[in-house]
Amino acid sequence: xxxxxxxxxxxxxxxxxxxxxxxxxxxxxxxxxxxxxxxxxxxxxxxxxxxxxxxxxxxxxxxxxxxxxxxxxxxxxxxxxxxxxxxxxxxxxxxxxxxxxxxxxxxxxxxxxxxxxxxxxxxxxxxxxxxxxxxxxxxxxxxxxxxxxxxxxxxxxxxxxxxxxxxxxxxxxxxxxxxxxxxxxxxxxxxxxxxxxxxxxxxxxxxxxxxxxxxxxxxxxxxxxxxxxxxxxxxxxxxxxxxxxxxxxxxxxxxxxxxxxxxxxxxxxxxxxxxxxxxxxxxxxxxxxxxxxxxxxxxxxxxxxxx
Amino acid sequence: xxxxxxxxxxxxxxxxxxxxxxxxxxxxxxxxxxxxxxxxxxxxxxxxxxxxxxxxxxxxxxxxxxxxxxxxxxxxxxxxxxxxxxxxxxxxxxxxxxxxxxxxxxxxxxxxxxxxxxxxxxxxxxxxxxxxxxxxxxxxxxxxxxxxxxxxxxxxxxxxxxxxxxxxxxxxxxxxxxxxxxxxxxxxxxxxxxxxxxxxxxxxxxxxxxxxxxxxxxxxxxxxxxxxxxxxxxxxxxxxxxxxxxxxxxxxxxxxxxxxxxxxxxxxxxxxxxxxxxxxxxxxxxxxxxxxxxxxxxxxxxxxxxx
Lengths: 307, 307
Known about the structure:
The structure is a homodimer.
Chain A: E1 4-7, E2 10-11, H1 17-28, E3 34-41, E4 46-52, H2 55-72, E5 88-97, H3 101-119, E6 123-127, H4 138-142, H5 145-153, E7 174-179, E8 183-189, H6 194-205, E9 214-221, E10 226-233, H7 241-252, E11 259-265, H8 270-281, H9 292-306
Helix pairs in contact in A: 1-2, 2-3, 6-7
């Protein structure tokens, strides 16, 4: 069964199309590497690559990204709207299919060690690859940003996981980590009362009372006249969708309100939906290998391997 | 994206291992055909084959099954515990992955026409391939069984869809159809009161009041001391799992009882679970192409096709 871990490096260059296309071409030339997407963002002056393949190919492609970006980008002259700490700002490994987030974390850690040595850039492990709870949240590492990072690194608590202990002003620092695919939802309330959305977002976003790794942004859909919540779920295994929806319904009860409809934004992993189905159907002991499509993948990939 | 339709022919021979192994070997020799399973059943004196592949391969394999079974089995001498009407009793086409049941029905109809002409056997279309509502239920066609089938065919209402109008005593008749994968559930109640299970099964199995294509069998788990329902879902798209569970909970309310746990038996299609997740999460407008794994299949199969 094919294990699919993808990487989604963000680099701090979104204007130089020739450079980006050149890097894409070099990635596509790596044997067995598959480029899934390249998204240039001129306003934020950054580009997000997405590629996958076997471990060797992903690592080789990753080193190409560091080599090219660190050779091209001088952070002392970088301007853009998005918070960032370095030329290769973040490099997440995402457990996409038939792979656990622990496997993605193992890839990330091995890759990060090599990047620190080879490119002499400070490396912070984040997400499921983090070695301390404080570094699980990528925003906590990014705090202070490029402009404040030399000072941040002076604090021993912010010694990097790999690479030099001092901040190279041209390269900046880099964050390498592992995560599940992020799930983005938009929940429309049954009311136009923005206070209901604000209360709920506040109640569920607290550092202690909140849901770990889940972010809530209140808003209003003027066309529909309905308050809404934008929801970002960092780890749908740790915080299943049914529990998030249940918590929202509990808070909205105070306003005599509920959820009128939910929309998904972007893709959703099979497991995030199946978890919620099993909960509501009261199914116990179910494994994802018992899904018809997953079992078929196993059978067919074995056949192809055996010839 | 690979479309996977499998076939699950049942033949009325479960004792002659050399014959079954010979047929398996002939199937495996068909280019691009993949045998998924062969299950001989001596008690019932029948064997269930399961194979898949591109349309051409599946048809070629199917003709091999008819040729071999009709050449080997003489129904005048067949004995076994399972109800059956012919040497190749049933030949379902199952929409397993990236295929709709309508596509499976189209395959079944084309295959059935050819079988009727080539082998001079009466063919009945069933399930989603049926041309009349009465023939959707395979049990309605099978009623009367081999022993009563010559008489049944005398009724113009039971003229076959293809093949001769008279019953060949040696071959019997055959049923070719299309369906989704069957979902089997076991729901344990919160009570040991068998009447609650019996009431619920009776209430939901009625010809008019019941849930179409869903069968309920009441029982008792003596070890746990809990009544239970065995549930067979013929078309999880037409009757989603959440609706079945909801109907059971409604009936059990009369006894102050509920469902304590549900177990799945065998494999469950992704779509059956996702439908129920979407319902409870109140997600609208979601397409299966928005599942990470499904989208990845699309992307990766395109890459491989393009080289």
